[in-house]
Amino acid sequence: MEKLKKYLTPKATGWLAIGMGGGALLCWIALGIVYGSIKSYFTSFGANENGLGLMVILLIALMLAFFVSLLATLVSGAGNGIRLFAWKDRRPFTIAAFAVACLNLLFLCLNFRVIGFCFSLFSGNVYGALGSGASLITTLSLRLGLLQFGMFLQIALAGYQVFLMVWAKKHPAAAQGSSAFGEAPVAAAAGTVAGAPVPPQGGYTVPQGGYAPAPQAPKGEGLKKFKEFAKSKAGKLTFIGIAAALVLLIGGGIALSILTQTRLDLVSNVEYTLEGESGDAYIVMDRANVEYDYNDSDVANFVSSVSYQFEPSDGLKNGDKVVVRAVYSKETAKRMRIKIKEDVREIEVTGLTERYDSAASIPAETVSAAKAQAESLLSSKKSSILSSAYGFSYKKDKTVAGQKLVGSYFLHDEPGSYSDDEIVLVYAVTVKGQQQTSYYPEEVFEDVEKVYYYMVKVGPINDQFSATDASVSATNISYRVESDQEVAAYIKSNFSGYDKVETLPVQ
């Protein structure tokens, strides 16, 4: 033990703390580079041998830094532990150094997984390393966060020691007289006469007559000395050191509790589909896309147990607000140390197809486009029109002499109905030809023309109408309609199932 006192001095532990603080600063920078390299390699499709070689070099440096840090932390923890518990060194620095060593040792132990990954890579088990690398990326941020917090504590401790050394150099008398710096002065043995020489540290020789009873200090003398010490610079520094140690211990515990939690956002990446049209739409859940460590089976089971509610879920129209709510067991999340960041989200309903309320609300360009599609269809069906034109001689040719729009209507139904809104256009198609009036003694023909009525439906008519994608169909209604005056009555009778049948201006 006496040999340890020779080497395990406050000066030695102080310089060790400063050295570890400097090393921690370098490791802080190196960890950032290593993490970036690993993340880039395992998340990039363009990873190559050069990238892998660079990562190997960085990982070698990481391993060396890890084991050097582990050794230094063990030495620091053991040394300051001996001074704190065996030698009753209650200096704030000793307490803080021991606490920091214990926390760093814990953080280093939590990172053995990273070191195992490195050994797998160096042993030639590349595929094994790659397999663990995918899961490593998801947890590496947490592990490195713990290490960096420990490095911060070590750097702060080194800064505190540097401050003590600088202060002691500027105030040597105060530093020598205070237990906050270096070794505390050895107290005189009980029973010795004031001014008598102090026995050596190796032990005291007990006089034959024993020690005289120690004189009793006046009442209140201890409190007075404590107050004087508290007001002195050395006392203030001592209390600051104790407070700093407590802050480090409490802060470390809080940080450890926070950093070891699994934080999940259950709703931000929810994907959904809106089905139907504005006024009668409903929402369908697609997938949640919760980001977590997919190799953690417990977290995976928890995520799979989460269900989702949409409020409201149907009867939706554009502009409505829908609340997406994750439903899960709060007790299970607490037991598994899962911190739910977000479990409620509000979305706005947009992009649904809107029906027009009336004929007047239909844009003029939509009506024009529907008319153009109808006339184009009729033009393509001239042969069919001629073949269905009755009352002409089969011996003579017949032609379509022209067509006229005689009726234009808007068929409207409520949102969610089975029928699409449509524009119905009725055309009077004139066919010219000849009729045979005499067969004997000679065949006689005379020119005639007849009118046939064709109904063309174009739809669906809504705010997303596209002429090229529209459905267009034509029907010969000549067997029901024989004049322009009969058109309106036929349309209203034939489409009575619609909510509205409105007349559009004939252009």
SSE layout and pairings?
Elements: H1 2-7, H2 10-43, H3 49-86, H4 92-109, H5 112-122, H6 126-170, H7 172-176, H8 221-231, H9 233-259, E1 262-265, E2 271-275, E3 281-287, H10 297-304, E4 307-311, E5 314-316, E6 321-327, H11 330-335, E7 338-342, E8 344-348, H12 364-380, H13 382-388, E9 399-412, E10 422-438, E11 444-459, E12 471-476, H14 487-494, E13 500-503
Helix pairs in contact: 2-3, 2-6, 3-4, 3-5, 4-6, 4-9, 5-6, 6-9, 8-9
3D architecture notes:
The protein has 507 residues and is an alpha+beta fold. The protein folds into three domains: 2-183 and 228-259, no CATH class; 263-348, no CATH class; 359-503, no CATH class. 48% of the residues lie in helices and 19% in strands. It contains 14 helices and 13 strands. It has helices at 2-7, 10-43, 49-86, 92-109, 112-122, 126-170, 172-176, 221-231, 233-259, 297-304, 330-335, 364-380, 382-388, 487-494, and strands at 262-265, 271-275, 281-287, 307-311, 314-316, 321-327, 338-342, 344-348, 399-412, 422-438, 444-459, 471-476, 500-503. It has a five-stranded antiparallel sheet. A three-stranded antiparallel sheet has the order 2-3-5, with no helix packed on it. Strands 4-6-8 form a three-stranded antiparallel sheet, with no helix packed on it. A hairpin with a 5-residue loop joins strand 2 and strand 3. Helix 5 (112-122) crosses helix 6 (126-170) and helix 6 (126-170) packs antiparallel against helix 9. The relative contact order is 0.07. Mean pLDDT is 78; it is low at 43-49, 126-135 and 184-207.
